[in-house]
Amino acid sequence: MVSRKVIAGAESTLVQTYFKKGAIVPLHSHEHEQVVYVLQGAVRVRIEGDDVTVREGEVLLIPGGAAHQAEAIDDTFVLTIDRTL
Asked: How far apart are CA 25 and CA 6, in angstroms?
């Protein structure tokens, strides 16, 4: 349901992820902010209890420490950038 390609640097991580429609990412958080760019498809993200749908060509900023989860509402490719410091 989910496949990922990861490029990890000293200060940031770039991740390309494919979600099959219906894939769910469980509730979790990251210490640093996360930038999510939807390349294809759409994903519904719940951040701190609020739902937002992010579609192809849109970008979502998830604040550091914010609890979030996601569900792919289409077959979806996303590019994610995380700071690691």
From this structure: 17
